[in-house]
Amino acid sequence: MIVAVPRETREGETRVAMVPELVGKLTGLGYEVAVEPDAGRHALLSDEEYVEAGAVLDADAISTADVVVSVQPLARDAVRRLKRGAATISFLPVNQELTLVADLRDVGATAFAMELVPRISRAQSMDALSSQALVSGYRCAIVAAGMLRRFFPLNMTAAGTVQPAEIVVLGAGVAGLQAIATCKRLGAVVRAYDVRAAAAEEIRSMGAKSIDLELDTLEGTGGYAREMTEERAQLQMERLAPYIADADALITTAAVPGRQAPLLVTSAMVEAMKPGSVVVDLASESGGNVEGSVAGEVTRIGNASVWGGKNVPASMPGPASRLYAQNVVNILTLMTSRAEGDAGVFAPDFEDEIVAGSCVTHDGAIRHEPTRAAIEGPSEGEPTS
Ligand code: NAD
Fold first, then answer.
1. Which of 3, 86, 101, 278 is the most buried (most CB within 10 A)?
2. Which of 81, 185, 224, 232 is catalytic?
């Protein structure tokens, strides 16, 4: 069976779903690996490296493949070229890709969404949201350090002492904790806040100070945050304002699954920051934690420069691709059985929680119920209101 690795075509996407270093893992599972020429170019991976690792180059890999692995969802014309019954494994933000999901259903594809891999211990090695959040969190800290016109660490020199930078991080999930760790390694003083109960301890374990706003914690299902009420949001802003006004740099990474990113910082709060302050909003693309941040741009609010993140993992395509490719290898391993003669057979077990949870379409049907309802309406017998 053939696993295809296409060249990513979405604007700004520099990552690739498989790296030469891991091609051997797929051939070891018994697959042939077909890579589109130039697939790894933006991640500085050459066609020759893929071939040396055991892959073949094929400009039409998508049409012959049994499984297509990509970072971004396939383009609509690529979906039409899929072999009937072929599988796709990629990020697939179902809420934003309803037309594409309908196309995948119509061509009989078995589509898996990396975002939907359940966050259970057994699936940790397949968790691409986490692997890419790690890259984003690191990058946010580096961007803040690069934009700030002062030292991060304390410097005690013969010419006097330079005080360390003071950083505030909002949201301490995978990305936020990595941003905290990176700022700490650079020597800054870091304070952080998150609404989850477990977060304060996690923040402290990174060597940062946990900001206590004396507000209730907000935890939803699966250890994720819940959405705030208007009143709670207002109170949180009021109590955070003095910490933000005192900070040299603010990094925001807060998200609530399936919702727009919560607005945590108003432009008035940014305007109260000191001259030369820096704001890095990782959530810019999904609505923004900071009012006025624009994805992919640096805007000026008051005295601060506000950087809005846009496909941040793509700014470090080498490591981001390597981590993503390992997630892909791990999920493919789960979905592979061995035929006689050691050929790999792609045979996902739909009884498996990870397979069932991440499957969006299969055999002409939409398996992910909220997406099915959004595209096809309520199922028979289900009330419409
Ligand atoms: P995320 O990307 O959904 O959100 C980022 C952070 O923003 C979260 O920590 C969240 O609590 C925080 N947040 C939301 N609203 C906020 C607000 N109003 N103010 C401040 N902060 C706010 O989160 P994530 O990085 O995916 O991690 C969320 C949880 O999932 C964590 O507990 C993490 O440890 C857990 N997790 C589990 C697994 C696994 O078991 N496989 C993998 C990754 C993460």
1. 3
2. 224
Q: Which of 53, 62, 65, 59 is nearest to 27 (CA)?
A: 53
In whole angstroms, how large is the CA radius of gyration of the chain?
23
Give the list of residues 6+ apart from residue 76 with CB closer than 8 angstroms, or none.
99, 100, 103
**Ligand 1 close to Cβ of residue 260 (< 6 A):** no
- Residue 76: the pLDDT is 96
Q: What does the pLDDT read at residue 257? A: 82
To the query of whether residue 138 is one of the catalytic residues in this protein, the response is: no
pLDDT above 60 (res 286): yes
101 lines ligand 1 (CB under 6 A): no
Q: Does residue 70 carry a pLDDT above 60?
A: yes
Q: 172 CA to middle of ligand 1, Å?
A: 7
The answer to whether residue 379 is catalytic is: no
- Beta strands 359-362 and 110-113 are antiparallel
Ligand 1 proximity of 323 Cβ (cutoff 6 Å): no
**What type of residue is 1?**
M
Q: State the alpha helices, DSSP H only, in 274-368.
A: 317-334, 353-358
* Residue nearest to ligand 1 atom 33, measured at CA: 173
List the residue whose alpha carbon is closest to atom 24 of ligand 1. Answer: 173
Nearest CA to ligand 1 atom 31: 173
Return the pLDDT at 381.
Answer: 63
Tell me which DSSP letter residue 228 carries.
P
Q: What is the DSSP string of 242-269?
A: HHHHH-SEEEE----TTSPPPP-B-HHH
Q: Which two tokens stand for residue 37?
A: 């020429």
Residue 290 DSSP one-character state? B
Q: Is 333 exposed, middle or buried (0-12, 13-18, 19+ CB in 10 A)?
A: middle
Q: Is there an atom of ligand 1 within 6 Å of 262 CB?
A: yes
